[in-house]
């Protein structure tokens, strides 16, 4: 309930009514394992030819001394190939700390340069997660941008990711 | 005729200890690393089963590690044991490193005072170590490249060496993915090696019944394409022979290439 309220308040404050929104909800499952580390996770938008249209987020151990957490970024294999190896991290507004199990809401809109640059067309939202001493999983959600109507698109992971939901608002 | 027979015998004997009977390989701990400052460790061995060190170590006398900018890196913590050699390399520059063992040798047979003698050694020792009164001298030149590539950060371009039999990547050697085609070119002394038979074998031989070898032949440009069936480490091997010898007394040159490549899961 509180979450809903704060979302509404946020929408009012930023005047999202006039902006096209692309919101992503990512569920990190709670796993019953002997040694648990929060996953490294990346979110981006690809064109049908797999070229990167927008890099939205990457979560990793940003706070380890000497930037040691960056050593494992290559384990986000697809992200590393398409984006990571060409980046200098940490990158403002993109990299953040790893997050705990639970559902995390990411809000993007065409007021942000990364989304504003998207030409009309077909895309895929990609979420990739890799966990130390665990596995790696990648989910893709195809969508059309901009959306003519409010749409809720969902994919469900099997081990490293739970539900990933993309909500598009014209 | 006798020349033919003795040369064949000589080659059979000498090759049996290297390319003919066994596979020569380098196995890096990783081929894709996140950033400069990371390290790799490399095993080097000669064995039948890829990539299990259970026969003899690969000698590291002719090991060279070339950094992305072209400078030579000193290997660290080198050791040679019963079954394998091993060494570490610090990747202080961003880009792709070539790790290679290149063995150039001469094999000779001759008669000295009526007795047949055999000699194998470095080309620079040949003139000094073959006696002046040697007769019926037969010399074969051997050139053997065993290599692998590792990248710290963003991959960088791999330049051709221009000498001996070599594989020049068209698809970057640390950007290989299962189910995707990769293209490479074989060169001999910098020229396309057309019609070369190439053998590609996935590692993990011990735990399967079939070799699962992929055989391809290079085209007029020396190119071939392979679509990797699965992720894992692969061994690419080819050999050639010609008479373009560097040593004037050598009648034949035998070239061999063995490369280790990592294929990632997409």
Describe the structure.
The complex is a heterodimer of chains A (170) and B (266). Chain A is 14% helix and 39% strand. Chain A is built from 3 helices and 9 strands, in the order H-E-E-E-H-E-E-H-E-E-E-E. A 5-stranded mixed β-sheet of chain A has the order 4-3-2-6-7. Chain A is globular. With 266 residues, chain B is mostly beta strands. In chain B, the strands form 3 sheets. In chain B, strands 2, 5, 6, 9, 10, 11, 13, 16, 17, 19 and 20 form an 11-stranded mixed β-sheet that branches. The radius of gyration of chain B is 19 Å and the shape is globular. Classes of the chains: A mainly beta (170), B mainly beta (266).
The low-pLDDT segments of chain A are 1-16
Number of beta strands of chain B: 20
Distance between the termini of chain B: 55 Å
Helix content of chain A: 10-25%
CATH superfamily of chain B: Immunoglobulins
Low-confidence stretches of chain B: 1-19
Radius of gyration of chain A: 16 Å
**What is the tally of helical segments of chain B?**
2
Strands, helices and their partners?
The complex is a heterodimer of chains A (170) and B (266).
Chain A lengths: L1 H13 L6 E8 L11 E7 L5 E8 L17 H6 L12 E2 L5 E8 L3 H4 L4 E10 L5 E10 L5 E6 L6 E7 L1
Parallel strand pairs in A: 3-4
Antiparallel strand pairs in A: 1-5, 1-9, 2-3, 2-6, 6-7, 8-9
Chain B lengths: L1 H15 L6 E6 L3 E2 L5 E9 L8 E2 L5 E4 L5 E2 L2 E5 L4 E6 L4 E18 L2 E7 L1 H7 L5 E18 L12 E5 L6 E2 L3 E8 L2 E2 L4 E6 L11 E4 L5 E5 L4 E11 L7 E15 L2
Parallel strand pairs in B: 2-11, 11-20, 13-20
Antiparallel strand pairs in B: 1-3, 3-4, 3-8, 5-6, 5-9, 7-8, 9-10, 9-11, 12-14, 14-15, 14-18, 16-17, 16-19, 19-20
